[in-house]
Amino acid sequence: MSDAAALALLDRVIGEADVTEQDRETLAALRTRIADDAALPEARPSYRELFQAMPDPVTVLDYEGNVVDLNDAALASFDRTREQIIGRPIHQVNPDLPREHMVPVREALDRRENYLIEVTNRRADGTRFPVEVHSSRVDVDGQSWIVGVARDLTTRRGGELRYRELMELVDKGILIRDADDRVVHANAAAMRMFGIGAGDAVDAVFRREQWLVIDENGRELRDDELPPVVARCTGGVVESTVLGYYHRERRRLIWVSVTAVPQFAPGTDRVQQVMTLFSDVTALKRDSALFDRAQALAHIGGWEWEPGPDRLYLTDEARRILGRDEPLESMEALLGVLGDSDRRSLRAALDGAIASGEHVDLEVLASRDDGHSVWIRLIGENDARQVLQARLTGTLQDVTERRQDEETLRVQARTDPLTTLLNRDALLSELQVRLADPTQSGVAVLYIDLDRFKVVNDLLGHGAGDGLLAAAAKRIQHAVGSEGLTARFGGDEFIVICHTADDAERPQRLAQAIVDAFDASFRVHTEDFNITASIGIAVADGGPVSAEALIQSADAAMFDSKRRGRNGWQLFTARLAEKQQHRLELENKMRRAIEHGEFRLVYQPQVDLNTGRVIGAEALIRWKNSTLGEIRPDRFIDHAETTGDIVGIGGWALREACRQMREWIDAGVDVPRVAVNVSYRQFLAEDLVGIVRDALAEYELPGPALELEFTERVLIEDVPDTLRAFHELRQLGVALSIDDFGEGYSALNYLRRLPIHGVKISKLFVQGVPENASDVAVCRAVAGIAQSLGLDVVAEGVENDAQRECLRSMGIGVGQGYLFAPALQPDEIEARYGPLVETR
C-alpha cells in the first residue's frame, strides 16, 4: 500500500467517534511525520509504522473480501500467524462471519457510507469475544480497499450488565426511552409503580394514548410538555416535577415526581436516549384538594370510614357520583341507598376487611335522588397505620357506562341482529343448561327449515331475503308464544326448545302451529310468495344426551320431513336414528377417503354432434371404500356439500384431473380438454383462482386444456366476487360453463355479464327428446338463448340417435352420454383416443 493510502487510512481512523483524545493526538502526530517523509524521495518509511501505532486491530481487505494486510493487534486478536491469514477471505479467518457478509459491506461503502457491525471474533483456539467493526473505503490509484477497525466490547458489555443490575436495585422507577420515544427498558421499581405485569409488553403499556398526564393544577399536559420529550428536544435535564398519571383502561391514578435526564451519543450533542426517574408521591397527595380535582378528572372519588363511631367521609367527587342531596355521613346511610342483595354483599365485605384485613372490591347499584341508578365500584382496605381503632380507606368509581356497555355486548352476543331472537351460541348454551338440570326432565327440540327460501332470496336479492326471514321469525315466535324458546340457528333455520314434562304432545302441537302459521303468503315488495316450513322434532328421553346430539337428531327428522314432501313435521324415531348412524359412518369414512386413496376419477367423453370428434372429457368422481364397497355419487356428494367436505374433495379432483390431462398430453391422447365440476361451497370457501393457477403451473398445462363447470347458483350469489373470479379465470385461458342449465335459477341476466363460454343442458330435459314436447321446448329455448349470447351448448345424457339428431337440428353442437361412451377409466380413454378417433 502506498503512503497516500496509509494517510487516507489514518484519516479514517482519526475521524472515528470513539477514539480517545490521547490516541487521536498520537495518531495525528504520526500522520504529520508520514506526510513530511512522503515528500522526501530519500525518506519513505513503511506504512507499517502506522499499523503498529494503532491500538485497535486493523485489517485491510481487497474489494472481494480477501485479507491484504493486518497489524499486530489484529494478529493477536485472531491468535494466528500472518501466513495463516494473508490472502484468505475474511469469513474464513473469522468463521462467525456469514459467507455473504461482504454484500452489505460493499453496498454501504458504494454509497460512500461507513459500515458498522457488532459480531463475535473467534480465535484459533475457538474462544470468542464481542467486537464492533467499523469498515471504511479507501480509493488509491484507481483501486478500492476496505479498511476494518475492530474494537473489543468485552469491557463495555460488562459495564452495561453492571449498569442494568444497579438499575434493578434502586427503589426509584426508571424508564429509558430511545430517540424515537420508544420505551426500551423499565426497571422493576417502575414496573411495580405503574402496575405492569412481567408478561406485559413495556412499550405497549406506556403508549401515550393509554395515559392521561396532569399537572398539580389538574391541567392535562400536551405531548411536547412531557419531561422526557422536553429533555430530548432541549438536551437539558428536567428537574423533579410532580405529575399525575391516569391509566385510561385500568382507571388508576398515581402521582409521581419525575426527573428526565438526556443521554448523548458518544462524541456528539445528539440525544441518544432519555432516562426518566420516578418517585411515587401518591400517598402525599391523597388528602389534598388537588387530589380531589384529579379524582374528578378520572371520575374517581375517595372514601374513609371509621367503623367504631360509624363515621364516613366522602370526597367531593364521591358525593357527586352518588348524587344525594343529603350528605351520607355514615356507612349505614350509604348501605341504605343500595338494594337488599348489594347491601348484604357490601356489609359482608366490610366485616371481612375489619376482621381479617381482606380487601374490599365489589360493584353495587345505588339509587340517586334524581331517580336514576348508578353502578359504583367500591375498593378499600384496612388502614394499617391505625393501631388503636380500625379505619378503612378506598376509592369509589362510577362504572355505569362500562356496565351498560357490557350489558349491551352481552345482549348482542346472545341475539341475532336480524330477527332479535336468540342466536346460535345462546341457544346452545341454554339447551346445555336445560339438559344438565335434573329438575327439568323432558326437553324437546324443534328444528325448522324454510322451504324454497333460497329460491326467493336468490331471485329478489339479500335485502328482500332478510325481510322475509324477519317476517318468518315473527310468525314462528307468535305461534310458539310462551310455551317455548325460539332462536335463529343460522341462515333460514330456526330452533324451538320446549318442555314435555307437563304436556307430552306440546312439541307436535307447536310444530303444527308453526306449519299453520305459514299458510298465509308473505308480501315481499309488491309480490306475494308462499313459503312453507319443514320441521323435525327430537325429544330427550331422560338419558344423557348432548345439545349437539339432540339438535342433530331433530335435523335428521327435518330432512325426513322434506323428503316426504315438505310443509310438515316429523318426529325423530329409531329408524331415523339408524339412518343418521349410517350418515355419520359415511361422513367419518369420507373424511379419510382422500388420505387413503379411495377416490378416483373416471372420464366421460364429450363429442361434436356434427363430426363425431371428441372435443373433451368430463371428470366424474367415484368412491370405493374397503368396508362399504362402491358408493354411488348421489349418496356421498350431497352429503359432502352439507358437511363442507366437498371443499377438500373438489380440490383433490381438480388437481387429479390436471395431472391426468398432463399424462394424456405426454402420451399423445386426442382429448383437447378436461372438464371439472366446481361446487358452490368450494367456490366460496377457497381461493379458487389461486388453486387453479397453481395446478396449471404444477402440471405445465395451458389454460384452454381445463374447463370448470359451475351450477346456476354461482350466477346469483355474491355477484361482484363471482364476476371478479370468473374474469381472472378467463385470463388464465380456462373455459367456464354453467352445468345443468335450466334446472335451477335460470338467471339469464347474469349469463351476459359473466365471461363464460358455454352452458350444459341437464339430462332431465334431454331424456324426453324428441317425444316430450315440453322437454323439446326447453332444449330449443336454451339453445336459442345460448346462440344469441354466442355460447356453446353441451347436451348431457344423450343415449340414442334420435336424441342426437333432434339436438343437432336445434343447433346444439356437443353431446355427452351413453350413445358415445360411458364414464371410462383413464387407461380406457388412452386406448380409445390415443390416435385420432371419430365417434359415429
From TrEMBL:
Limits of the EAL domain: 583-837
Domain GGDEF residues, every copy: 441-574
Residues annotated as transmembrane: none
One Pfam family named in its UniProt record: EAL
Occurrences of domain PAC (ranges): 115-165, 360-411
InterPro entries: Biofilm_reg_signaling (IPR052155), EAL_dom (IPR001633), EAL_sf (IPR035919), GGDEF_dom (IPR000160), Nucleotide_cyclase (IPR029787), PAC (IPR001610), PAS (IPR000014), PAS-assoc_C (IPR000700)
All residue ranges annotated as the PAS domain in the record: 43-112, 159-203
Annotated protein name in UniProt: EAL domain-containing protein
The organism of origin for this protein: Cognatilysobacter bugurensis
